[in-house]
Each structure stands twice: as C-alpha cells, then as structure tokens.
Amino acid sequence: MREMMYGDAIAAAIIEEMQRDESVIFYGQNMAMTDRDPMLKRFGRSRVRIAPISETAETGIAIGAALTGLRPIVELWMSEFMLVAFDQIINEAPRFRYMSGGRVKVPVVFKAGYGFAAGWAGQHSNCLYHSMMGVPGLKVVVPSTPADAKGLLAASIRDDNPVVYLHSYMLTLERGEVPDGEFLIPLGAADVKRTGNDVTIVAIGWMVKKALAAAEQLKEEGISAEVIDPRTLAPLDVNTIVSSVSKTGRLVLVDQAPRHSSAAAVIAAEVSEHGFEYLRAPVRMVTALDTPVPYSTPLENYVLPNEGKIVQAVRSILANQAVAA
C-alpha cells in the first residue's frame, strides 16, 4: 500500500494495464504531443497517440479498434465533450455484442471527468451519468477514492463491454492509500464506506466525501449514519443498498446531478420497489437544483449539495419532517 492522489491512481492503473496487456492502447486530445511525453516514451506511438479535436472521430476509432481485438482507453477529458459522440456511445458501442449474439466484444473505456464545480459554470460542471446508466450493454463507473479509482479502472479495461469511466475533477488531488501492483474491484459491487444504524446515506462520486463529513457531524449529535458508495451505476448494486435500509429504516440519497436527471432518482425507485417495507420515513434526495450550474461561487454553493444539506435531510427524516426547499 502507498498513499497516492486520485489522479495519480488513475494513471497508475493505465500504466499497469498497458504493461500487462499489449492490446491496451491509450489516446486522446492534448496528449503525446511531444517525444518527451512520459507515456509516449514508455509505450511508443503505436499505443499512445494524440487524437484530432473530434470526439466523434475519437469514439468511432475506439469502437472500431475494440471490434478488432484491441482494448482502447479514450481520453475524452470532460463528460460534456462526449455529447457530440452520443450516438456512438449510446446507440452503437453497447449494441454490437447483443446484436451479434455474443460473438462480438467491444472492450473500450470512454474516460472523462465530470462535475468540475470550481467556477467552470454551465458547460463543464455537469453530471451526465443518469443519461448513460440506463443504456443496456453500457457500464458506468464513478469512483470516489484513489483506491477505487485504480481498482475500478483496471477492471473496466479488462471488461469485454464498453465502459464509461467518469472521474470527479473535484477529487483529483485527494490522497488515500492505494494497493501496489495488480488490484481489481468488480464492477457492480457497492462499498460500505462507513457503518451505522440510524440512517443510510447513499452518495455518488465527489458526494461520498461530503456524506462522510456529514456523518462525522451527525455522530456528535448521537446519530449513527451508514454511508454507501455504489461505485458503479451500471450495473447498480441494489442489494447492498436495500440490505442497509433494512437495518436503518431510513434513506438519504446524495447526488451532484440535478434532482430530475439524477442517479438518486433511479436508486430511490429501486428502494421503493425492493425495500419499501423497511422504510420508517420517506426517502430524501439531496441533489443539485434543477438549474444550470452558475459561475458565481455563492450561487454555485447554493445550487449544489453540501454537508449542511445532508445533515438537514438526515435530521428531517429522523423527525419524519419534510426537508425545507
């Protein structure tokens, strides 16, 4: 084990998988621009390349390469940039294996950052995973810690299906213990980040850090909160979440995305169907407001979830009262 930053853990997974498997290739914009690029020096231009400023071209090349037996990792930088290539990501890559009766594999990783909520405003601060987590054949990964970032990316690269790997820009410099060498985390397995008995808090990506901070604050009030990180939104580990709710009887969902285009809404529906009998209070969703993310820092803070909003939601369901708008 060694301490690493979230961003460095992602890089470590890419390097180790490229060393292990020569079919893994890595390309994208703003990389391998000179011969001094460390990845280029290590693996050569046949495996590390700069791509044209065309997400449609990058995505199409990746799908074609995957169909021939390579395992491409495409650096798309920001999830918003994926939108221009959504036909290929949603309508092409996830369908080929099904339409071929399993004879075709599409082992490609679409890697992008999301939720850059640091004054980058309306077109760089968004969370688009809700629009992808319901597409059959497409896997969606959202790690919240350096260890998860490494283990989930390695598993994504080895998967024979297309994977959208979304890393939070707000976690890039976060540090944590990361296992050395080969380390895999199965896709579809949620993680209980903190155990508790009074309320279950399910948080996604950057929000896991905020949920854990809220849980510490609630502890001082005598409230024991269990914090769960789904880690992958597709496949979604509903069983772990419902099992926790069966113990605590209360559920708060924390999602950086807007309320009506959030993964939280999907999770709430799953718990309502599979764990309704365990609920002793209404499910609460702590999400961004249904508005574009503002440039202004005070307005950005108003729109996005934070520790205080999480604490308020927990207090409200313990008192079985409505959360103030």
In short:
This protein has 11 helices and 14 strands. The chain is an alpha/beta fold. The longest helix has 15 residues, at 6-20.
Topology:
Elements: E1 2-5, H1 6-20, E2 24-28, H2 38-43, E3 48-50, H3 55-67, E4 71-78, H4 86-92, H5 96-99, E5 109-114, E6 139-141, H6 146-158, E7 163-168, E8 175-178, E9 191-194, E10 199-203, H7 206-219, E11 225-229, E12 232-234, H8 238-248, E13 251-258, H9 263-274, E14 284-288, H10 297-303, H11 307-318
Parallel strand pairs: 2-3, 2-4, 4-5, 5-7, 6-7, 10-11, 10-13, 13-14
Antiparallel strand pairs: 1-8, 6-12, 9-11
Explain this structure to me?
By secondary structure, the protein is an alpha/beta fold. It folds into two domains: 2-178, 3-Layer(aba) Sandwich (Rossmann fold); 191-318, Rossmann fold (3-Layer(aba) Sandwich). Helices cover 35% and strands 21% of the residues. It has helices at 6-20, 38-43, 55-67, 86-92, 96-99, 146-158, 206-219, 238-248, 263-274, 297-303, 307-318, and strands at 2-5, 24-28, 48-50, 71-78, 109-114, 139-141, 163-168, 175-178, 191-194, 199-203, 225-229, 232-234, 251-258, 284-288. A seven-stranded mixed beta sheet has the order 3-2-4-5-7-6-12, with helices on both faces. It has a five-stranded mixed beta sheet with strand order 9-11-10-13-14, sandwiched between helices. A two-stranded antiparallel sheet has the order 1-8. Strand 13 (251-258), helix 9 (263-274) and strand 14 form a beta-alpha-beta unit. It is globular and about 60 Å long.
